[in-house]
Amino acid sequence: MPVSGIKSAVEQKMNKSIEALKNDLTKIRTGRAHPSFLDNVHVDYYGASTPLSAVANLTLLDARTIGVQPWEKNMVNAIEKAIREADLGLNPSTQGELIRVPMPALTEERRKEMVKLVKTDAEAAKVSVRNHRRDANEQLKKLLKDKEISEDDDRRTQDFVQKLTDKFIVEIDKMVVAKEAEVLTV
What secondary structure letter does DSSP report for 23? Predict the structure, then answer.
């Protein structure tokens, strides 16, 4: 694999680590409601476990309430039961065909737990980025050993990979600071 291939591959892998972190951070609950909190809820739909978003329309009714509008009237009770059993600490209430899911206010202790979770996810993303750096450097060492690249190419590419790693670590740190502020805001 040429040096340019290693560079692009490591950058793609690091970008995927950042995307995975973004995805994980959206699942961490803040004081505000967001339909993505119900992404992991599955409903028994005619014998098949189906994601909630596939059987109902999810909307924000206000800053602390998610509205769930089932596409079929007979699914209201099944959806309400699935939300209760999803172990998210949510207590839905039905008003006709609309299911209201109020988000309980977070206690200070719970907010601190959320911050710890954010930091844990961020550290996992940093480890992933560093692992991608290590893999790229090992590929470079192998190419150098096999005399497929020069020492100058090896050094330049290692410097590029290190700068890329530093850039992604800084981006992860910025995401953590932003999410911490969001979680701790009352």
Answer: H
d(C-alpha 14, C-alpha 131), whole Å: 9
Contact between residue 161 and residue 139 where contact means Cβ atoms under 8 Å apart? no
d(CA 3, CA 99): 55
Strand-pair partners of 1:
none
Summarize pLDDT for 20-29 with one digit per residue, the tens: 998 888 777 6
Instruction: Delimit the domains of the chain by residue range.
Output: 3-27+107-184, 35-102
Neighbours of 33 (CB within 10 A): 22
Cα–Cα nearest to 157, from 138, 176, 174: 138
The CATH classification of domain 3-27+107-184, taken from the options 1.10.10.10, 1.20.1250.20, 1.10.132.20, 3.30.230.80: 1.10.132.20
1: pLDDT strictly greater than 90: no
CATH T-level topology, domain 35-102 = Gyrase A; domain 2 (3.30.1360)
Q: How far apart are CA 52 and CA 101, in angstroms?
A: 13
Is the pLDDT at 31 greater than 70, yes or no? no
Q: Which residue has the higher pLDDT, 26 or 175?
A: 175
- Indicate whether 177 pLDDT > 60: yes
pLDDT at 30: 67
Whole-angstrom distance, CA of residue 185 vs CA of residue 144: 51
